[in-house]
Specification:
Elements (H helix, E strand, L loop, with lengths): L2 E6 L2 E5 L3 H14 L4 E6 L3 E6 L6 H9 L13 E6 L6 H8 L3 H10 L2 E6 L6 E4 L14 E4 L3 E5 L2 E4 L4 E3 L2 E5 L20 E6 L6 E2 L18 E7 L2 E5 L19 H11 L7 E5 L3 E6 L2 E9 L2 E4 L5 E4 L4 E4 L4 E4 L4 E9 L30 E3 L28 E8 L8 H9 L2 E7 L3 E5 L15 E2 L4 E3 L7 E3 L6 E2 L3 E5 L2 H5 L6 E5 L16
Parallel strand pairs: 5-13, 26-34
Antiparallel strand pairs: 1-2, 2-4, 3-4, 5-14, 6-7, 6-13, 7-10, 8-11, 9-10, 9-12, 15-18, 15-25, 16-17, 17-24, 18-23, 19-22, 19-24, 20-21, 20-23, 26-33, 27-28, 27-34, 28-31, 29-32, 30-31, 30-33
Length: 535
């Protein structure tokens, strides 16, 4: 039985009866290539569909999916991988006891089973492998480890998986491998993509093999230009390079990421004549100071605060938010403390030169993709101003009438309920929509932790099988205090999502201390979907 659930104004969650049905549905959707479907995020029982509302709608997709014949959908991508494992995991004996067999039988049956990558998530390159041996149904550890080493082979529920990098985790560890699960110099970077058939062999008897395409290095976006650059004097709390992100790689466990406030990034680039997708600097908190090498044109959008340029002779120039201004070799550009909003975007004519990962220069702070956070002394190479594709309009001003909140202000955000609002009682839904919530200091690009006097009351307990999540989702952990997902959110998760915020750009500009009241869907207007809503 297929159930359709609203996940946002441009996301539809399709729930199947079990993992096998979900995998068949995902294969059928890939083969059908329905018009308007942008990306698929398969998971344990669901497929999350991101669609373009200018080309299709949720009702149209539901009708098309209902008519799909998934019974003959082929499983497996035709790609096979063999992984060499040393079965020395510290949980092997405990797993054997839980399953009522010997450790030797666990190893033997793990190797005999046919494993298929059902979906990706948790981290880039991490695949959830479903097997054909019913023996493997293993509970997670009651207390997760704070650090699982790279290459660890584990079991959890009906799945096996290999950790592509060191990270916390609660899977039962039965061995380890030297296979490289994630490599940006390989095509594709992920060794495990949905549909891949995986065989595990004992490292003592065979060498690791993988049927994969030849490696190919991804080139930098451009050659650096020593004559135009910015040198970081003070980075503030967080200074990142961001563009519009890397959509289209959900099958490898990679979320879109990109600028938290997409409209502010596009406005900054328009002001200086860049393509709207060009990389810019995103700053969060504190004072940012940059030394300028070479002449140029810059603009700052997003959060409000002082913008000053100090020339080499000590002359100070003050500039307004949302307008282009000139830079001269030797200038010191300073962005003072934010007064309203949370994030500012600095674009420089010609654009930032940075190495790319999967076609994007964006820093993904959760997945550790893209450039690292900038620190004092770092140099940011810039393309020559002549590289910009458009002229600068000196009279153009963008975002001047945008009102962003300061700590303590009350903000109303419209939400779309779903996909798991049925996991909460009517009282819980009422609490979400009537109570004030405060953005806490435990907030970053992964998500804003919210605090309310009354926690959201659940109708059901426990966790869901992992399923796709969107930017703007309000995920609710067991404590009943929601987390508002930002651009670097996990691709999949097991806590229920009660609703999603429609205006993700505004959500990105909420500093700690802002109070939020969520608007009832019935009060929402019928405006077309916000183009900033990307996952």
């Amino acid at each position: 039985m297929t159930v359709f659930r609203t996940a946002s104004r441009r996301h539809l969650l399709v729930e199947s009866a079990d993992l096998a049905a979900s995998m068949q549905l995902n294969h059928a959707l890939e083969a059908a290539a329905l018009p308007g479907v942008v990306e698929l995020v398969p998971a344990a029982r669901t497929v999350l569909i991101r669609f373009d509302p200018a080309r299709t709608s949720a009702p149209a997709l539901e009708e098309a999916i209902t008519g799909l014949d998934v019974t003959d959908s082929a499983t497996g991508s035709g790609r096979t991988v063999t992984i060499d494992v040393r079965y020395d995991g510290e949980d092997l004996a405990e797993v054997a006891a839980l399953l009522g067999v010997s450790p030797a039988e666990v190893v033997a049956r793990h190797q005999r089973a046919r494993w298929e990558v059902a979906f990706s998530g948790f981290a880039p390159g991490f695949g959830y492998l479903a097997g054909d041996d019913p023996l493997f149904d293993v509970p997670r550890r009651s207390s997760p480890r704070t650090r699982v080493p790279v290459g660890a082979v584990g079991l959890a529920g009906e799945f096996t998986g290999v950790y592509p990098r060191a990270s916390p985790g609660g899977w039962q560890l039965i061995g380890h491998t030297d296979a490289i699960l994630w490599d940006l110099d390989r095509q594709p970077p992920a060794l495990f993509v949905p549909g891949t058939i995986v065989t595990f062999v004992d490292a003592g008897r065979a060498s690791a093999r993988a049927a994969e395409a030849p490696a190919s290095a991804e080139s930098s976006t451009a050659d650096s230009s020593a004559s135009h650059s910015l040198t970081v004097i003070e980075p503030g709390l967080q200074l990142l390079i961001e563009d519009l992100g890397r959509p289209g790689f959900a099958s490898m466990g990679v979320s879109s990421a990109g600028a938290a406030d997409r409209s502010a990034l596009a406005e900054a680039n328009r002001l200086v004549g860049n393509a709207e997708s060009a990389a810019v600097l995103e700053s969060f908190g504190g004072v940012v100071s940059l030394r300028v090498t070479g002449d140029g044109v810059a603009a700052v959008t997003g959060a409000g605060g002082p913008i000053t340029v100090t020339a080499a002779d000590g002359t100070v120039f003050r500039h307004r938010l949302g307008e282009a201004f000139s830079l001269v070799d030797g200038d010191l550009l300073e962005l003072g403390p934010t007064e309203t909003g949370a994030r500012r975007y600095l674009a420089v004519r010609g654009g930032i030169i940075a190495d790319t990962a999967l076609g994007s220069a964006s820093a993904d702070t959760l997945a550790h993709l893209g450039p690292a956070a900038l620190t004092a002394g770092d140099t940011i190479d810039l393309a020559a101003p002549s590289a910009a594709p458009h002229l600068v309009d000196p009279g153009l001003r963008l975002g001047a009438d945008r009102v962003l909140p300061a700590p303590g202000d009350l903000v109303e955000l419209t939400v779309t309920l779903g996909p798991r609002d049925d996991w909460f009682t009517p009282a819980g839904i009422d609490t979400l929509l009537t109570q004030e919530w405060t953005v806490t200091h435990e907030s970053d690009r992964v998500g804003l932790r919210l605090a309310g006097e009354v926690p959201l009351e659940r109708a059901r307990t426990g966790e869901l099988p992992s399923e796709g999540a969107v930017t703007g989702a309000l995920q609710v952990p067991p404590n009943g205090q929601p987390v508002l997902f930002g651009p670097d959110h996990p691709l999949t998760g097991g806590y229920p999502i009660i609703a999603s915020v429609d205006d993700t750009d505004l959500a990105a500009q909420l500093p700690p201390g802002v109070r939020i009241r969520f608007r009832s869907p019935a009060a929402a207007d019928s405006a077309s979907p916000d183009p900033s809503d990307e996952s």
